[in-house]
Specification:
This protein is mainly alpha-helical and 381 residues long. The protein is built from 15 helices and four strands. A two-stranded antiparallel sheet has the order 1-2. Strands 3-4 form a two-stranded antiparallel ribbon. The longest helix has 28 residues. The two termini are 30 Å apart. This is Farnesyl diphosphate synthase.
Length: 381
């Protein structure tokens, strides 16, 4: 019979044999996590070099930010970070040396740092409660919103400390910096669109305007708030690190962009469906899209399908922090069989992604996008 344990052991044996030979791989999460520890230690040690602060104050900063980094940066699926490592492997078409693995992992961790900055801020913006199975950072009793906002800004700044420390002499240094700066801008534009699906007026939410919830607006929102930082950035960093110049050979960047927009839209639609239907203990977070009156794929799709009576259920209950109202919205989603609509969409997107990936030249570059699609297809969290 099939014994998965034996297969896993074989894989582990292969990995440890590779590690012995100094070959590092994007499948090696432990090696990737070790690089986080190095980066964290470097950044925390920087507090010691600050002039004009007492040792007590430095100690306080070091303790607080050690805890902050450990709680906000690792702990996710690390797909964005590992994709950079995978991208460099695919572009080099060979196993990486220890130095190349370290460099690629440092870049990967900067994407995870960017994610941490966005998530700390996003959880405050959305009044979220849990993240990765723990309280959101700002919800911790020794943090609060006062620290949470500043900590998000500090997390963003640390990206540029690490990039300077590790890549200042790299020929692509400026390009790497600009990728982070541009991606941050795109994500912030997306966050604005996302937060103002229902606009504010007179210091509170304006009355619900369901006409704003269209798939067209949805696509624009997702492109900016998710696709660029969750997919394109990792691919573009691998290209830049490997010396692919966007001026002289823009085609690889253009192709990466096209595939990443597709993958990102599919990923965000999954995220919206999971927000409403996945058990929080599996998902690691409690969904608040209905309460936050988000322009979610589910509400956009529902509005295309509803009868006038069903539409009234949304008018009466969408965007309210009321448990019974949320239940009614979810019941409507079930009644409209949106999970089936999603499953059909998922199969359709998978085929569209496969076709788009197959059209990429050089063929070796396809492997990176197959890796990404494999990470997200039919995911449960």
């Amino acid at each position: 019979g099939f014994h998965p344990r034996i297969v896993v052991n074989r894989l582990e044996a292969k990995q440890s044999a590779e590690t012995d030979r100094g070959i590092m791989s994007s499948t090696d999460k432990a090696a990737f996590l070790k690089v986080f520890d190095t980066l964290k230690d470097e950044l925390i040690a920087d507090f010691d070099t600050l002039p004009g602060l007492s040792d007590d104050l430095k100690q306080q900063l070091k303790e607080y930010y050690t805890f902050c980094l450990e709680k906000t940066v690792p702990g996710g699926k690390m797909t964005r970070g590992l994709t950079v490592v995978k991208g460099v492997e695919v572009l080099k078409q060979r196993p990486l040396t220890e130095e190349e693995f370290f460099d690629a992992a440092v870049l990967g961790w900067q994407v995870e740092w960017l994610q941490a900055f966005f998530l700390v801020a996003d959880d405050i913006m959305d009044s979220s409660i849990t993240r990765r199975g723990e309280p959101c950072w700002y919800k911790r009793p020794n943090v609060t919103q006062d620290n949470g906002i500043n900590d998000a800004l500090l997390l963003e700044n640390l990206i540029y400390k690490s990039l300077r420390r590790h890549f200042k002499k790299h020929p692509s240094y400026v390009h790497l910096l600009e990728l982070f700066i541009d991606t941050t801008f795109q994500t912030e534009v997306g966050q604005h669109i996302d937060t103002n699906g229902t606009p504010y007026a007179d210091g509170k939410r304006a009355p619900l305007d369901l006409s704003r919830f269209t798939l067209d607006r949805y696509q624009g929102c997702v492109r900016y708030k998710t696709c660029y930082y969750s997919f394109y950035l990792s691919c573009a960093l691998a290209l830049a690190y490997c010396g692919v110049d966007p001026e002289t050979s823009p085609d690889l960047y253009t192709k990466a962009d096209a595939v990443c927009m597709r993958l990102g839209e599919y990923f965000q639609i999954q995220d919206d469906v999971l927000d409403a239907f996945a058990p929080p203990e599996v998902l690691g977070k409690i969904g608040t899209d209905i309460e936050d009156a988000k322009c979610s794929w589910l509400v956009c799709k529902a509005l295309e399908m509803v009868t006038p009576e069903q539409r009234q259920v949304l008018v009466d209950n969408y965007g309210k922090w009321d448990e019974e109202g949320v239940k009614k919205v979810k019941a409507l989603y079930k009644e409209l069989d949106l999970e089936k609509v999603f499953n059909d969409y998922e199969d359709e997107q998978k085929e569209a992604c496969d076709a788009l990936i197959a059209s990429i030249e050089p063929e070796s570059f396809q492997e990176l996008f197959k890796f990404l699609l494999g990470k997200i297809y039919k995911r449960q969290k």
